[in-house]
Design goal:
The structure holds two protein chains of two kinds. Helix content of chain A is about 30%, strand content about 10%. Chain A is mainly alpha-helical. Chain A has a three-stranded parallel β-sheet with strand order 1-2-3. In chain B, the strands form two sheets. A six-stranded mixed β-sheet of chain B has the order 1-2-3-6-5-4. In chain B, strands 7-8 form a two-stranded parallel sheet. In chain B, strand 7, helix 4 and strand 8 form a beta-alpha-beta unit. By secondary structure, chain B is of the alpha/beta class.
Chain lengths: ~170, ~260
Protein backbone atom coordinates (compact mmCIF):
# COMPACT_ATOMS: atom_id res chain seq x y z
CA UNK A 1 0.00 0.00 0.00
CA UNK A 2 1.31 3.37 -0.93
CA UNK A 3 2.50 5.58 1.86
CA UNK A 4 0.02 8.38 1.19
CA UNK A 5 -2.93 5.94 1.14
CA UNK A 6 -2.40 4.56 4.63
CA UNK A 7 -5.46 5.41 6.63
CA UNK A 8 -4.24 5.75 10.17
CA UNK A 9 -7.78 6.21 11.32
CA UNK A 10 -8.64 2.56 10.71
CA UNK A 11 -6.98 -0.58 12.02
CA UNK A 12 -6.05 1.11 15.29
CA UNK A 13 -3.99 3.61 13.38
CA UNK A 14 -1.49 1.14 12.03
CA UNK A 15 -1.20 -0.40 8.56
CA UNK A 16 -1.58 -3.96 9.86
CA UNK A 17 -4.14 -6.71 9.50
CA UNK A 18 -5.16 -8.48 12.66
CA UNK A 19 -5.46 -12.24 12.57
CA UNK A 20 -5.21 -15.13 14.97
CA UNK A 21 -2.77 -17.94 15.42
CA UNK A 22 -5.59 -20.32 14.58
CA UNK A 23 -6.01 -18.85 11.14
CA UNK A 24 -2.31 -18.88 10.45
CA UNK A 25 -1.84 -22.46 11.58
CA UNK A 26 -4.93 -23.69 9.78
CA UNK A 27 -3.82 -21.92 6.63
CA UNK A 28 -0.58 -23.84 6.82
CA UNK A 29 -2.17 -27.13 7.72
CA UNK A 30 -4.92 -27.06 5.14
CA UNK A 31 -2.66 -26.07 2.26
CA UNK A 32 -0.08 -28.77 2.81
CA UNK A 33 -1.90 -32.01 3.48
CA UNK A 34 0.16 -35.16 3.31
CA UNK A 35 -2.07 -38.18 2.74
CA UNK A 36 -0.77 -41.63 3.48
CA UNK A 37 0.01 -43.79 0.44
CA UNK A 38 -2.41 -46.50 1.42
CA UNK A 39 -4.78 -48.24 -0.96
CA UNK A 40 -7.10 -51.11 -0.14
CA UNK A 41 -9.01 -51.95 -3.31
CA UNK A 42 -10.20 -50.51 -6.61
CA UNK A 43 -10.78 -47.04 -5.08
CA UNK A 44 -7.02 -46.91 -4.67
CA UNK A 45 -6.69 -46.86 -8.48
CA UNK A 46 -8.76 -43.67 -8.55
CA UNK A 47 -6.67 -42.33 -5.69
CA UNK A 48 -3.49 -43.01 -7.68
CA UNK A 49 -5.03 -41.25 -10.68
CA UNK A 50 -5.76 -38.26 -8.44
CA UNK A 51 -2.14 -38.14 -7.39
CA UNK A 52 -0.86 -38.48 -10.94
CA UNK A 53 -0.16 -35.74 -13.43
CA UNK A 54 -3.56 -35.64 -15.14
CA UNK A 55 -5.60 -34.75 -12.04
CA UNK A 56 -2.63 -33.47 -10.08
CA UNK A 57 -3.18 -33.34 -6.34
CA UNK A 58 0.09 -31.45 -6.06
CA UNK A 59 -1.54 -28.21 -7.22
CA UNK A 60 -3.46 -28.25 -3.93
CA UNK A 61 -0.27 -28.80 -1.98
CA UNK A 62 -1.12 -32.44 -1.48
CA UNK A 63 1.52 -35.08 -2.05
CA UNK A 64 1.19 -38.69 -0.98
CA UNK A 65 3.64 -39.67 1.70
CA UNK A 66 4.89 -43.20 2.09
CA UNK A 67 5.12 -43.24 5.87
CA UNK A 68 2.31 -42.88 8.40
CA UNK A 69 4.67 -41.03 10.73
CA UNK A 70 5.06 -38.20 8.25
CA UNK A 71 1.50 -37.94 6.96
CA UNK A 72 -1.60 -36.33 8.41
CA UNK A 73 -4.49 -37.54 6.23
CA UNK A 74 -5.53 -41.16 5.93
CA UNK A 75 -7.59 -41.96 2.85
CA UNK A 76 -9.22 -45.33 3.38
CA UNK A 77 -9.71 -46.21 -0.27
CA UNK A 78 -11.57 -49.46 -0.70
CA UNK A 79 -12.96 -52.53 1.00
CA UNK A 80 -11.57 -53.04 4.48
CA UNK A 81 -11.57 -56.71 5.40
CA UNK A 82 -11.80 -57.75 9.03
CA UNK A 83 -8.42 -59.41 8.82
CA UNK A 84 -6.87 -56.13 7.72
CA UNK A 85 -8.76 -53.82 10.09
CA UNK A 86 -6.18 -54.28 12.83
CA UNK A 87 -3.39 -53.05 10.56
CA UNK A 88 -5.41 -50.10 9.27
CA UNK A 89 -5.96 -49.01 12.86
CA UNK A 90 -2.28 -49.48 13.62
CA UNK A 91 -1.37 -47.18 10.71
CA UNK A 92 -3.84 -44.63 11.99
CA UNK A 93 -2.32 -44.80 15.46
CA UNK A 94 1.17 -44.27 14.04
CA UNK A 95 0.18 -41.00 12.38
CA UNK A 96 1.06 -37.89 14.33
CA UNK A 97 -1.53 -35.37 15.46
CA UNK A 98 -3.25 -33.51 13.97
CA UNK A 99 -4.68 -36.15 11.66
CA UNK A 100 -7.80 -36.56 9.59
CA UNK A 101 -9.49 -39.47 7.87
CA UNK A 102 -11.33 -39.60 4.54
CA UNK A 103 -13.49 -42.66 3.98
CA UNK A 104 -13.47 -43.15 0.22
CA UNK A 105 -16.12 -45.15 -1.60
CA UNK A 106 -19.16 -47.21 -0.69
CA UNK A 107 -17.19 -50.10 0.76
CA UNK A 108 -15.28 -47.93 3.19
CA UNK A 109 -18.42 -45.99 4.13
CA UNK A 110 -20.81 -48.85 4.83
CA UNK A 111 -19.28 -52.10 3.65
CA UNK A 112 -20.96 -51.47 0.30
CA UNK A 113 -21.97 -54.51 -1.64
CA UNK A 114 -19.86 -56.76 0.59
CA UNK A 115 -22.56 -57.52 3.10
CA UNK A 116 -20.60 -60.55 4.30
CA UNK A 117 -18.84 -61.96 7.35
CA UNK A 118 -15.37 -60.88 6.25
CA UNK A 119 -15.84 -57.15 5.56
CA UNK A 120 -15.84 -54.30 8.07
CA UNK A 121 -19.26 -52.65 7.77
CA UNK A 122 -17.99 -49.10 7.57
CA UNK A 123 -14.52 -47.95 8.57
CA UNK A 124 -16.05 -45.63 11.17
CA UNK A 125 -16.19 -48.73 13.33
CA UNK A 126 -12.41 -48.58 13.76
CA UNK A 127 -11.25 -45.00 13.05
CA UNK A 128 -12.97 -41.60 13.45
CA UNK A 129 -13.92 -40.39 9.97
CA UNK A 130 -14.00 -36.71 8.96
CA UNK A 131 -15.22 -36.91 5.37
CA UNK A 132 -17.39 -39.63 3.87
CA UNK A 133 -16.98 -39.75 0.11
CA UNK A 134 -19.71 -41.65 -1.75
CA UNK A 135 -19.24 -43.42 -5.05
CA UNK A 136 -18.25 -46.79 -6.43
CA UNK A 137 -15.57 -45.91 -7.21
CA UNK A 138 -15.49 -42.10 -6.80
CA UNK A 139 -13.88 -40.28 -9.69
CA UNK A 140 -10.63 -38.41 -9.03
CA UNK A 141 -12.54 -35.13 -9.24
CA UNK A 142 -14.71 -36.35 -6.38
CA UNK A 143 -11.72 -37.19 -4.25
CA UNK A 144 -10.31 -33.74 -4.96
CA UNK A 145 -13.60 -32.22 -3.90
CA UNK A 146 -13.51 -34.28 -0.71
CA UNK A 147 -10.03 -33.02 -0.01
CA UNK A 148 -11.17 -29.43 -0.62
CA UNK A 149 -14.03 -30.04 1.82
CA UNK A 150 -11.49 -31.34 4.32
CA UNK A 151 -9.40 -28.20 3.82
CA UNK A 152 -12.51 -26.15 4.45
CA UNK A 153 -13.17 -28.12 7.60
CA UNK A 154 -9.60 -27.68 8.82
CA UNK A 155 -9.78 -23.93 8.24
CA UNK A 156 -12.86 -23.71 10.43
CA UNK A 157 -11.32 -25.74 13.24
CA UNK A 158 -9.37 -24.57 16.23
CA UNK A 159 -5.62 -24.88 15.83
CA UNK A 160 -5.50 -26.56 19.21
CA UNK A 161 -6.92 -29.95 18.34
CA UNK A 162 -8.06 -30.49 21.94
CA UNK A 163 -10.64 -27.73 21.52
CA UNK A 164 -12.20 -29.29 18.45
CA UNK A 165 -15.45 -31.06 18.99
CA UNK A 166 -14.80 -34.42 17.42
CA UNK A 167 -17.93 -36.03 16.13
CA UNK A 168 -16.74 -39.51 16.92
CA UNK A 169 -15.38 -39.39 20.45
CA UNK A 170 -15.71 -43.11 20.95
CA UNK A 171 -12.88 -44.00 18.60
CA UNK A 172 -10.19 -41.43 19.40
CA UNK B 1 -64.42 -55.41 -10.61
CA UNK B 2 -61.15 -57.25 -10.55
CA UNK B 3 -60.83 -59.90 -7.88
CA UNK B 4 -58.85 -58.70 -4.83
CA UNK B 5 -55.58 -60.48 -4.27
CA UNK B 6 -53.44 -59.71 -1.21
CA UNK B 7 -50.27 -58.02 -2.38
CA UNK B 8 -48.22 -57.94 0.85
CA UNK B 9 -45.65 -60.39 -0.33
CA UNK B 10 -46.15 -60.21 -4.04
CA UNK B 11 -42.61 -59.19 -4.96
CA UNK B 12 -41.03 -61.92 -2.95
CA UNK B 13 -43.17 -64.57 -4.60
CA UNK B 14 -41.98 -65.93 -7.85
CA UNK B 15 -44.63 -64.92 -10.36
CA UNK B 16 -43.71 -67.59 -12.88
CA UNK B 17 -42.72 -71.14 -12.26
CA UNK B 18 -42.37 -73.69 -14.98
CA UNK B 19 -43.91 -76.86 -13.62
CA UNK B 20 -42.32 -78.95 -16.33
CA UNK B 21 -38.77 -77.63 -15.98
CA UNK B 22 -36.22 -80.28 -15.18
CA UNK B 23 -32.76 -79.32 -14.00
CA UNK B 24 -30.36 -80.24 -16.80
CA UNK B 25 -27.81 -82.93 -16.02
CA UNK B 26 -24.36 -82.99 -17.47
CA UNK B 27 -24.32 -86.02 -19.79
CA UNK B 28 -22.18 -88.91 -18.60
CA UNK B 29 -20.79 -91.74 -20.68
CA UNK B 30 -18.79 -94.87 -20.01
CA UNK B 31 -15.07 -95.08 -20.59
CA UNK B 32 -14.42 -96.34 -24.14
CA UNK B 33 -12.39 -99.49 -24.57
CA UNK B 34 -8.86 -98.85 -25.82
CA UNK B 35 -8.94 -95.09 -25.22
CA UNK B 36 -6.40 -93.15 -23.20
CA UNK B 37 -8.77 -92.91 -20.26
CA UNK B 38 -9.27 -96.67 -20.27
CA UNK B 39 -5.53 -97.09 -19.76
CA UNK B 40 -5.69 -94.60 -16.87
CA UNK B 41 -8.45 -96.62 -15.23
CA UNK B 42 -6.41 -99.81 -15.75
CA UNK B 43 -3.34 -98.21 -14.20
CA UNK B 44 -5.32 -97.22 -11.11
CA UNK B 45 -6.60 -100.79 -10.75
CA UNK B 46 -8.63 -101.72 -7.70
CA UNK B 47 -8.63 -98.23 -6.27
CA UNK B 48 -11.26 -97.12 -8.78
CA UNK B 49 -14.75 -97.40 -7.30
CA UNK B 50 -16.48 -95.78 -10.23
CA UNK B 51 -15.25 -94.15 -13.45
CA UNK B 52 -17.08 -92.27 -16.21
CA UNK B 53 -16.53 -89.56 -18.82
CA UNK B 54 -18.23 -86.19 -18.48
CA UNK B 55 -17.55 -83.21 -20.75
CA UNK B 56 -14.49 -84.94 -22.15
CA UNK B 57 -12.94 -85.48 -18.72
CA UNK B 58 -12.45 -88.71 -16.83
CA UNK B 59 -13.97 -88.70 -13.37
CA UNK B 60 -12.66 -91.33 -10.98
CA UNK B 61 -14.16 -92.03 -7.57
CA UNK B 62 -11.83 -93.52 -4.97
CA UNK B 63 -11.70 -94.12 -1.23
CA UNK B 64 -10.22 -91.20 0.69
CA UNK B 65 -7.41 -93.39 2.11
CA UNK B 66 -6.15 -93.97 -1.44
CA UNK B 67 -5.77 -90.33 -2.42
CA UNK B 68 -1.97 -90.19 -2.22
CA UNK B 69 -1.27 -93.42 -4.08
CA UNK B 70 -3.84 -92.59 -6.76
CA UNK B 71 -2.34 -89.20 -7.47
CA UNK B 72 1.14 -90.73 -7.43
CA UNK B 73 0.14 -93.26 -10.07
CA UNK B 74 -1.51 -90.55 -12.16
CA UNK B 75 1.61 -88.41 -11.95
CA UNK B 76 4.29 -91.06 -12.52
CA UNK B 77 2.58 -93.48 -14.90
CA UNK B 78 -0.14 -91.57 -16.72
CA UNK B 79 1.53 -88.17 -17.25
CA UNK B 80 -0.83 -86.07 -15.15
CA UNK B 81 1.92 -83.83 -13.85
CA UNK B 82 -0.15 -80.83 -12.82
CA UNK B 83 -2.71 -80.61 -10.02
CA UNK B 84 -4.63 -77.52 -11.09
CA UNK B 85 -7.12 -77.43 -8.27
CA UNK B 86 -8.19 -79.32 -5.20
CA UNK B 87 -10.93 -78.43 -2.79
CA UNK B 88 -13.99 -79.81 -1.07
CA UNK B 89 -17.77 -79.65 -1.29
CA UNK B 90 -19.95 -79.61 1.82
CA UNK B 91 -22.47 -82.46 1.76
CA UNK B 92 -22.76 -82.60 5.57
CA UNK B 93 -26.50 -81.97 5.72
CA UNK B 94 -27.22 -84.47 2.96
CA UNK B 95 -24.75 -87.29 3.65
CA UNK B 96 -22.72 -86.27 6.72
CA UNK B 97 -19.52 -86.11 4.68
CA UNK B 98 -17.39 -83.90 2.46
CA UNK B 99 -16.53 -84.51 -1.15
CA UNK B 100 -12.89 -83.78 -1.94
CA UNK B 101 -11.83 -83.45 -5.55
CA UNK B 102 -8.45 -83.23 -7.25
CA UNK B 103 -8.39 -81.78 -10.75
CA UNK B 104 -5.42 -83.23 -12.67
CA UNK B 105 -3.98 -82.02 -15.98
CA UNK B 106 -1.92 -83.89 -18.55
CA UNK B 107 -0.02 -81.28 -20.54
CA UNK B 108 1.28 -83.75 -23.14
CA UNK B 109 -2.13 -84.90 -24.31
CA UNK B 110 -4.17 -81.89 -23.09
CA UNK B 111 -6.44 -84.13 -21.03
CA UNK B 112 -7.91 -83.78 -17.58
CA UNK B 113 -8.88 -86.26 -14.88
CA UNK B 114 -10.89 -85.46 -11.77
CA UNK B 115 -10.27 -87.68 -8.76
CA UNK B 116 -13.18 -87.56 -6.34
CA UNK B 117 -13.43 -89.04 -2.86
CA UNK B 118 -15.83 -88.76 0.06
CA UNK B 119 -14.59 -88.22 3.61
CA UNK B 120 -16.77 -88.38 6.75
CA UNK B 121 -16.97 -85.33 9.00
CA UNK B 122 -14.10 -85.17 11.50
CA UNK B 123 -11.66 -87.39 9.62
CA UNK B 124 -8.35 -86.13 8.27
CA UNK B 125 -7.03 -86.65 4.76
CA UNK B 126 -3.43 -87.38 3.75
CA UNK B 127 -1.51 -84.49 2.25
CA UNK B 128 -0.44 -84.47 -1.41
CA UNK B 129 2.18 -81.74 -1.01
CA UNK B 130 5.12 -84.16 -1.64
CA UNK B 131 3.64 -84.79 -5.10
CA UNK B 132 2.42 -81.31 -6.04
CA UNK B 133 3.71 -78.01 -4.70
CA UNK B 134 0.41 -76.40 -5.73
CA UNK B 135 -1.40 -78.55 -3.18
CA UNK B 136 0.25 -76.66 -0.32
CA UNK B 137 -1.89 -73.53 -0.49
CA UNK B 138 -4.94 -75.41 -1.80
CA UNK B 139 -4.98 -77.79 1.16
CA UNK B 140 -4.51 -74.94 3.59
CA UNK B 141 -7.46 -73.20 1.97
CA UNK B 142 -9.49 -76.39 2.24
CA UNK B 143 -8.69 -76.53 5.94
CA UNK B 144 -9.46 -72.83 6.35
CA UNK B 145 -12.79 -72.91 4.55
CA UNK B 146 -14.12 -76.33 5.58
CA UNK B 147 -12.15 -77.38 8.66
CA UNK B 148 -10.91 -80.60 7.04
CA UNK B 149 -7.62 -81.50 8.72
CA UNK B 150 -4.66 -82.55 6.56
CA UNK B 151 -2.25 -85.21 7.80
CA UNK B 152 1.50 -84.47 7.43
CA UNK B 153 0.97 -81.06 5.89
CA UNK B 154 4.23 -79.02 6.10
CA UNK B 155 2.53 -75.83 7.27
CA UNK B 156 -0.92 -76.65 8.56
CA UNK B 157 -2.37 -73.21 9.17
CA UNK B 158 -5.18 -70.97 7.98
CA UNK B 159 -4.45 -69.13 4.77
CA UNK B 160 -7.29 -66.68 4.06
CA UNK B 161 -9.01 -65.94 7.34
CA UNK B 162 -7.03 -64.59 10.32
CA UNK B 163 -5.25 -67.13 12.49
CA UNK B 164 -7.50 -66.42 15.47
CA UNK B 165 -10.73 -66.76 13.48
CA UNK B 166 -13.44 -69.07 14.74
CA UNK B 167 -15.46 -71.13 12.30
CA UNK B 168 -15.00 -72.23 8.72
CA UNK B 169 -16.85 -69.89 6.37
CA UNK B 170 -17.53 -72.13 3.39
CA UNK B 171 -19.55 -74.62 5.42
CA UNK B 172 -23.21 -74.50 4.44
CA UNK B 173 -24.09 -73.96 8.09
CA UNK B 174 -22.00 -70.77 8.31
CA UNK B 175 -24.20 -67.66 8.02
CA UNK B 176 -23.30 -65.34 5.14
CA UNK B 177 -23.30 -62.23 7.33
CA UNK B 178 -21.22 -63.90 10.00
CA UNK B 179 -21.86 -65.34 13.42
CA UNK B 180 -21.47 -63.58 16.78
CA UNK B 181 -17.69 -63.91 16.72
CA UNK B 182 -17.37 -62.56 13.17
CA UNK B 183 -19.60 -59.56 13.73
CA UNK B 184 -17.47 -58.31 16.64
CA UNK B 185 -14.09 -59.47 15.36
CA UNK B 186 -12.52 -56.10 14.56
CA UNK B 187 -13.91 -54.41 17.68
CA UNK B 188 -12.68 -57.19 19.97
CA UNK B 189 -9.28 -57.22 18.34
CA UNK B 190 -8.61 -53.48 18.26
CA UNK B 191 -10.43 -52.05 21.26
CA UNK B 192 -11.29 -55.04 23.42
CA UNK B 193 -14.59 -56.63 24.31
CA UNK B 194 -15.64 -53.83 26.66
CA UNK B 195 -15.85 -51.54 23.62
CA UNK B 196 -18.72 -53.52 22.11
CA UNK B 197 -21.29 -51.35 23.89
CA UNK B 198 -19.57 -48.15 22.79
CA UNK B 199 -19.33 -48.97 19.11
CA UNK B 200 -22.55 -50.89 18.82
CA UNK B 201 -23.67 -53.65 16.51
CA UNK B 202 -23.01 -53.63 12.79
CA UNK B 203 -25.51 -51.90 10.56
CA UNK B 204 -26.12 -54.55 7.95
CA UNK B 205 -28.87 -52.54 6.27
CA UNK B 206 -27.14 -49.47 4.88
CA UNK B 207 -30.37 -47.89 3.67
CA UNK B 208 -32.03 -48.13 7.08
CA UNK B 209 -33.40 -44.82 8.33
CA UNK B 210 -33.50 -44.33 12.07
CA UNK B 211 -36.15 -41.82 13.07
CA UNK B 212 -34.36 -40.80 16.28
CA UNK B 213 -30.77 -40.84 15.01
CA UNK B 214 -29.90 -37.14 14.85
CA UNK B 215 -26.28 -37.86 14.03
CA UNK B 216 -27.10 -39.00 10.54
CA UNK B 217 -30.67 -37.91 9.81
CA UNK B 218 -32.74 -34.79 10.13
CA UNK B 219 -36.34 -34.00 9.27
CA UNK B 220 -37.09 -31.04 7.06
CA UNK B 221 -38.78 -28.42 9.20
CA UNK B 222 -37.74 -30.14 12.43
CA UNK B 223 -34.00 -29.53 12.43
CA UNK B 224 -32.25 -30.02 15.77
CA UNK B 225 -28.66 -29.91 16.97
CA UNK B 226 -26.22 -32.67 16.12
CA UNK B 227 -26.75 -35.72 18.32
CA UNK B 228 -29.70 -34.15 20.15
CA UNK B 229 -32.14 -36.41 21.96
CA UNK B 230 -35.50 -36.29 20.18
CA UNK B 231 -37.07 -39.36 21.73
CA UNK B 232 -39.60 -37.06 23.43
CA UNK B 233 -40.37 -35.11 20.28
CA UNK B 234 -38.85 -32.07 18.61
CA UNK B 235 -40.16 -28.58 17.98
CA UNK B 236 -41.04 -27.32 14.57
CA UNK B 237 -38.70 -24.78 13.01
CA UNK B 238 -40.23 -22.68 10.27
CA UNK B 239 -38.63 -23.18 6.90
CA UNK B 240 -36.73 -20.08 5.88
CA UNK B 241 -36.77 -19.24 2.22
CA UNK B 242 -34.33 -16.88 0.64
CA UNK B 243 -35.92 -13.46 0.50
CA UNK B 244 -33.76 -12.20 -2.33
CA UNK B 245 -34.31 -14.83 -4.98
CA UNK B 246 -37.75 -16.21 -4.29
CA UNK B 247 -40.75 -13.95 -4.60
CA UNK B 248 -43.59 -14.66 -2.21
CA UNK B 249 -46.73 -13.73 -4.16
CA UNK B 250 -49.08 -14.92 -1.43
CA UNK B 251 -48.28 -12.18 1.09
CA UNK B 252 -48.50 -9.24 -1.30
CA UNK B 253 -47.00 -7.69 -4.36
CA UNK B 254 -44.40 -5.44 -2.72
CA UNK B 255 -41.47 -7.65 -3.60
CA UNK B 256 -42.71 -8.07 -7.13
CA UNK B 257 -43.16 -4.34 -7.57
CA UNK B 258 -39.72 -3.76 -6.24
CA UNK B 259 -38.18 -6.16 -8.67
CA UNK B 260 -40.06 -4.60 -11.54
Amino acid sequence: MAQHKVDFASNAGLPIALTSVDKLLNWGRSNSLWPLTYGLACCAIEMMASGGSRYDFDRMGTIFRASPRQSDVMILAGTLSKKHSEFARRLYDQMTEPKWVISMGSCANTGGMFNTYATVQGVDRIVPVDIYLPGCAPRPETLQYALMMLQKKIRSESANMNNNKKQDLRLI
Amino acid sequence: MRKYVPKDNVQKKSYYTDRFWVAPRVPQSDVEEGSHFASVVDALGDRVLCAYISLGQLIVTIKHQDNYSTLETLKDECGYKVCTELSAVDYLAQDGEFEIFYQMLNLDDALRVRVVCRIPDGEAIETTVPLFKSANFAEREMYDMFGIKINNHPFHKRIIMPDDWEGHPLLKTYPLQGDEFASWYEVDKIFGKEYRDVIGPENRDASRIDRYDTKRFSRVGYEVDFDADISKGESKTPIEYSQTVLVDYTTGTEQLDERR
